[in-house]
């Protein structure tokens, strides 16, 4: 009864428990190769079979993220040692109603491995995913997995990574994206080809339209930092800004929702035409780790627009973007740092596909530029010894008078 020596359970990792990583950028973000064969699964720590779910919902998912699935294999005590099985599973690339959203057909089954650290593992020492192949059959990604070195009495957890599409257009026809365990059979040297009963196991992604309708709440705050003054070598000098100085704007984008992922997040920063863009850096430690290269300036010499693709923000996550600019000699200096009379104005906005509260999605930061003093000094003789400017000094004690004029020629 080789086929009866095995049972398979199909489920998905709970999205609340593991970091969300964009599938197409996995190696860039983590610096690691994709896992295969046997692996501890540390890159998605928290994705565990013992807390897995039988269905998925959009509220805690990000478009483009890796979604881990589990195949828990239980081996009967009467099974032959060192055996192998093969199973097939499928993930839809569109909704059951034909809507254009599902699992990414270009990335397919991104990775598959025996998760050696999963808490549901029992007595496994060497089981491995020896082969993974996938193809598109109709509108379904079908993956074929071969698991070797299965021994009697052990429980092995196979983890497979699929990736959600990274683009979605509203509205989406249909609400469900299906995944399923299709079939399984023995494939070792003993009674190969025996069917393993898998039942009718599915893990649907339900209510896909909620990627738009479940509301996150993004906000953005921008401030300037005049303490970065490159033309003044004295670190204790007053933090005022003058023509030619460089300073940094700090932009904080926050998802204020404590339950819903903000998807499709785009930052737009419009610089004042009297500054020149220098650089931009990102501080992002949660979810999608935004690289600096995702913050792009349009190349304008004066001002210009910065666009930041932040992908998604986890609930209560804050991403910080620092933009350094240089003040051009065209900047006015007769204003202050108020919204009414600022010398420079910087406008920033943030958008998301599921943020309907736009009242806190923009901010304006005024900046004061002080005049740059450039002094000239002139000295003129007005009297010598009471004989006027033309008098001469003939002996000790003669008195000479001067007029000294100091002029500020600065801007």
Based on secondary structure, the structural category is mainly beta
Kindly estimate the percentage of residues that lie in beta strands according to DSSP.
35-45%
Q: Please trace the helix and strand order, writing H or E for each element.
A: EHEEEEEEEEHEEEEEEEEEEE
The CATH class label of the largest domain is Mainly Beta
Compute the gyration radius: what is it?
33 Å
In total, the number of domains comes to 3
The largest β sheet comes out as:
5 strands, mixed
Q: Helicity, in percent? A: under 10%
Task: Compute the average pLDDT.
Answer: 89
List the uncertain runs.
232-238
Termini separation: 92 Å
Strand line-up in the sheet with most strands: 1-3-8-5-2
The CATH topology of the largest domain is: Immunoglobulin-like
Number of strands: 20
Question: Which second-level CATH architecture of the largest domain applies?
Answer: Sandwich
DSSP summary: helix tally = 2
- What is the approximate shape? elongated
